[in-house]
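Section 5: illustrative case.
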């Protein structure tokens, strides 16, 4: 990859953000190559060694003060540039255990060993390769433009977002206490979605992403021969009743207008068709935008699981384990309105309002840990021709989305828009 850097030559003072960004934006061909490379070489959560190294080397080359191995493979680059606000820009780095089916010439063919010792295919099916590439490019732009702002810029590359564990791990490992980092005045981040066409940025104050809890439920039975079920207690039947009954929590227990999601994404039991197993395992994801609703969903799940096990004569109560948690992402109101105005002025018709999504993120933990405001926005990634056609035919929902094997954001104008959005957001809040 041949790298061409922009010069550190300041145009006239008192410039508008658009003029600053256009003047100092680096040549993006270098970052497009980085994107293809990272996409082709994805890494599972808590194994982002190569990606972390690429980001760290880049920041060091630019002149940032870099601190690595925070909360595992997380890192920060700090650029102090006089007195003023401290702004943190965040990108996540991890990929997913998905077999890529995009047909791209830079598609991933990689496999890795997961946490359970299984060899699995790996794909950047959620766009974190876009996030990393955009933040690397924005880091160069803002470094080159440091004559135009004052304060401190922090570029944070986070591991293990897909486990909703990386942000908390970095906080717990002393992110804000061990590295001489002044606590940021605001935390900023973005996420690419093919719900929007490439070139679009989407932002709204208030609720933007749901809270999430991951649950494992083990249902205990009494194993035996499949030909003699009367001598057994079949955990598969009982677990099946649990899955069906769980669907009534949202449809029959939540007040109209309240949003909640209860999905059983994994059901595992047994080893052979003629053996009734001793247990069955369910794995659930539970999401809402409201703390009380989330508590209601979790209470309902526990109540139903225990009641069905009791009705099925299970030898003991089910084991219910919380495996993951992240709070809802609720964009800070006044700061979001300020940035929304900046986006509208800069991106014009390509700045839109983002409707709340039931997806979840651990991004807000970085701000909640120090009681600071935060803003998270959407970045469009879908080819404009495909998006317009899907919109015309009412088929936006059929565009391969995040976590699908066909998720394929177009490289441009996605990277340019994401780079500009991060730089603009930082400039909006720096001095």
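Designed sequence:
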């Amino acid at each position: 990859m041949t790298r061409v850097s922009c010069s550190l030559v300041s145009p006239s003072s008192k410039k508008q953000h658009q003029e600053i960004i256009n003047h100092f934006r680096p040549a993006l061909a270098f970052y497009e190559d980085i994107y293809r490379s990272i996409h082709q070489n994805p890494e599972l959560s808590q194994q982002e060694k190569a990606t972390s190294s690429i980001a760290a080397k880049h920041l060091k080359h630019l002149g940032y003060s870099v601190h690595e191995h925070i909360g595992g493979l997380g890192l920060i680059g700090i650029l102090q540039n006089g007195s003023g606000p401290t702004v943190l820009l965040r990108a996540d780095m991890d990929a997913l255990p998905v077999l890529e089916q995009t047909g791209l010439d830079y598609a991933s063919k990689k496999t890795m060993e997961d946490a359970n010792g299984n060899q699995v295919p790996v794909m950047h099916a959620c766009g974190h390769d876009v996030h990393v590439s955009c933040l690397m490019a924005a880091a160069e732009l803002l470094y080159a433009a440091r004559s135009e702002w004052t304060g401190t810029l922090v570029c944070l590359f986070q591991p293990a977002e897909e486990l909703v564990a990386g942000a908390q791990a970095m906080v717990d490992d002393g992110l804000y206490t061990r590295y001489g980092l002044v606590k940021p005045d605001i935390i900023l981040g973005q996420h690419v979605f093919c719900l929007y066409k490439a070139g679009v940025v989407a932002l709204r104050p208030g609720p933007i992403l749901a809270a999430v809890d991951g649950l494992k439920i083990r249902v205990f039975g009494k194993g035996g021969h499949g030909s003699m079920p009367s001598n057994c207690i079949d955990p598969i039947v009982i677990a099946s009743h649990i899955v069906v009954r769980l669907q009534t929590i949202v449809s029959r227990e939540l007040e109209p207008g309240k949003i909640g999601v209860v999905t059983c994404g994994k059901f595992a039991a047994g080893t052979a068709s003629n053996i009734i197993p001793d247990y069955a395992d369910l794995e659930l994801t539970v999401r809402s935008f409201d703390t009380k609703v989330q508590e209601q969903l979790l209470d309902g799940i526990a109540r139903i699981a225990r009641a069905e096990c009791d009705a099925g004569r299970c030898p003991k109560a089910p084991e219910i384990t919380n495996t993951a948690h992240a709070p809802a992402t609720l964009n800070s109101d006044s700061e979001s309105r300020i940035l929304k105005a900046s986006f509208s002025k800069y991106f014009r018709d390509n700045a839109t309002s983002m409707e709340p999504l039931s997806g979840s993120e651990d991004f807000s933990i970085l701000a909640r840990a120090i009681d600071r405001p935060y803003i998270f926005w959407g970045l469009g990634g879908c080819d404009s021709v495909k998006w317009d056609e899907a919109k015309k035919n009412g088929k936006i929902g059929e565009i391969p989305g995040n976590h699908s094997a066909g998720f394929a954001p177009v490289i441009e104008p996605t990277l340019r828009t994401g780079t500009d959005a991060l730089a603009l957001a930082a400039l909006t809040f720096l001095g």
